Amino acid sequence: AAGRLDADSEGLLLLTSDGRLQQRLTDPRWGHWRRYWVQVEGTPSDAALQQLREGVMVQGRRTLSAQAIALADPGLAERVPPIRQRRSIPTSWLELGLREGRNRQVRRMTAAVGLPTLRLLRVAIFLMDAEPSLSLEGLAPGQWRPVTAAEQERLSRLLSGRGGRVSRGGRVSQ
Model-level pTM? Predict the structure, then answer.
């Protein structure tokens, strides 16, 4: 997998048998943004969103700057089973964009600004080629599909500067 999701997370995984492609997509030096939808406990303030944008201290190290905006409820099907249910505490949704992928980073970042994560979905991976991101569009939970020929070509171009070639085994899955 080009990136990982913990057992409490959902969303996009790009599966490949090419180790160089996996490394290229996950190493923060290459700057591939990943977009997440995050349901949090509480209501984000402008100050909390700004802290996320500037980077927060997580395990003694500041995170890279992030993209952070409040998001209207995306209307997703309920997760079965839910991670946690809150009856009297309001929840909100955020859209976060990250260029790095530390262990449980999104959860630790939102907790650092007082907004514990309840649900986390990776919804897109940007290939940094000025074309649309790889996304979950058109996939229901649990579905997967092979990459398209156009996506395969874009992934191959990521490595072409080093003479690389992507194997045909890539899949996009949720």
Answer: 0.85
